[in-house]
Amino acid sequence: MRIDVLTLFPRMFIGPFEESIIGRAIKGGYVNLNIYNIRDYTHDKHHTVDDYPYGGGSGMIFKPEPLFEAFESISTNYPYEGATPRIVLLTPQGRLFSQKIALELSKEDNVVFICGHYEGVDERIRLHLANDEISIGDYVLTGGELPAMVVIDATVRLIPGVLGAETSIEDESHVNGLLEHPQYTRPPLFQDWKVPKILLSGNHAAIARWRREQSLKRTLRRRPDLIEKIVLSSQDKMLIDKFNQDENK
């Protein structure tokens, strides 16, 4: 997978992408990650990338010329002629990022991330360059660099081979629509706090049922909005009814 990032602050990506899983994915050849400074595609002595909005208003707007020129420059290096990458504009107006979108992006050959700044971007960037818009939440950040890192991290770890043990992905929060069940490790007793007996039983079927029950209970308590978005089995519905009855006692 090839990932290109267009940013005003390329050094922000150096540390995070040299460490942990992302760093190993790059070194292992699973990801070809390229960071480009948008100011390199300007032609005035001040390397201007923004200007005042037409019609007045506060703040500055990202100019279209540097971004279009940056994309045209890097697109000549795509592995095959006519390749159309996913071009993602990180913006508060985009669709809300989720595990489903991360999986969707992980199947792309080429993804370009545009890190916005200032008051916004010229609408022609949105209409005629970007073909996807993503937000990581309903809050305002200084720029699109941190959102780009979040999206890239969540996406790259889903590329086959990056994590090694593919089953570890299946059990994570949000993969099946639920929050992950409680996890325990050694020692079995710590400061009078015991590991649930079922996890020490060796009964894998019973452990699987317990984990499903705990995932449902945790999701119901912490993120009930997620319950409405998934397909529940009749057993799941019975458990949820029981949880609700217990809560109301």
Short description:
This protein is of the alpha/beta class. It has helices at about 20-25, 65-75, 100-105, 125-130, 145-155, 165-170, 205-220, 225, 235-245, and strands at about 1-5, 30-35, 50, 60, 85-95, 110-115, 120, 130-135, 190, 195.
Question: What's the CATH C level of the largest domain?
Answer: Alpha Beta
Low-confidence stretches: none
Order of helices and strands: EHEEEHEHEEHEHHEEHHH
CATH H-level homologous superfamily name of the largest domain:
SPOUT methyltransferase, trefoil knot domain
Distance between the termini: 53 Å
- Based on the structure given, which CATH architecture of the largest domain is correct? 3-Layer(aba) Sandwich
Strand order of the largest sheet: 2-1-6-5-8
Helix/sheet category: alpha/beta
Indicate the overall shape.
elongated
Instruction: Briefly note the CATH topology name of the largest domain.
Output: Alpha/beta knot
Radius of gyration from CA coordinates: 23 Å
Molecular structure report:
- The protein has 249 residues and is an alpha/beta fold.
- It has 2 domains: 2-156, Alpha/beta knot, CATH 3.40.1280; 171-247, Trp Operon Repressor, Chain A (Orthogonal Bundle).
- It contains 9 helices and 10 strands.
- The strands form 3 sheets. A 5-stranded parallel beta sheet has the order 2-1-6-5-8. The chain has a 3-stranded mixed beta sheet with strand order 3-4-7. It has a two-stranded antiparallel ribbon with strand order 9-10.
- Helix 7 packs across helix 9 (234-247).
- The longest helix is centred in the C-terminal third of the chain and has 19 residues, at 204-222.
